[in-house]
């Protein structure tokens, strides 16, 4: 039982919003027990970008819902009508160095870097294994996040808390 009324809104960013940020969004929504609401976006998704099929496959194999997952630009979250974000986490090194839009409400930010599981011309099963490993690394860090006591998730300390988790 927690005393937080509204869930904590978390936005995961990566360049194309097709793999790592999609994995993080789906996992946190699955694990968040109503305390968290996850979203994801990309700094520069390609035209007609879709979530990576292997990312969706490893989520489904882990029993995580992929319903409603779609690739989208971070511009969707920079407009006044967008949900207010409490925490924004970049999950790829490219997006970490990019100039972010102005986020209403000055949310906490952190960078949790993961290698691109899609890199290189690896065979399909090796790629699938890379996606599975990336999903497990993200899940491990998210488990730490969702199990934090409520006071660690209050706006005043959220920045420090999220950045401390990047070391795990």
Tell me briefly what this model is.
The chain is an alpha/beta fold and 168 residues long.
Integer tally of domains: 1
Order of helices and strands: EHEHEHEHH
Counted beta strands: 4
Unreliable stretches (pLDDT < 50, length at least 5) are: none
Helix content: 25-40%
Q: From the 3D structure, determine the CATH topology.
A: Rossmann fold
CATH uppermost class: Alpha Beta
What is the radius of gyration computed over CA atoms, rounded to a whole number of angstroms?
A: 15 Å
Share of residues in strands: 5-15%
Can you offer a commentary on this structure?
The structure is a single chain. This protein has 168 residues and is an alpha/beta fold. The chain has one domain (8-159): Rossmann fold, CATH 3.40.50. 35% of the residues lie in helices and 13% in strands. It is built from five helices and four strands. The chain has helices spanning 20-31, 53-61, 93-96, 124-146, 155-165; strands spanning 8-14, 36-42, 87-90, 108-111. Strands 2-1-3-4 form a four-stranded parallel beta sheet. The radius of gyration is 15 Å and the shape is globular. 38% of the residues are buried. The model has no long low-confidence stretch (mean pLDDT 88). This is Arsenate reductase ArsC. It comes from Comamonas piscis. Keywords: Arsenical resistance. Pfam families: LMWPc.
Show the helix and strand layout.
Blueprint: E1 8-14, H1 20-31, E2 36-42, H2 53-61, E3 87-90, H3 93-96, E4 108-111, H4 124-146, H5 155-165
Parallel strand pairs: 1-2, 1-3, 3-4
Helix pairs in contact: 1-4, 2-4
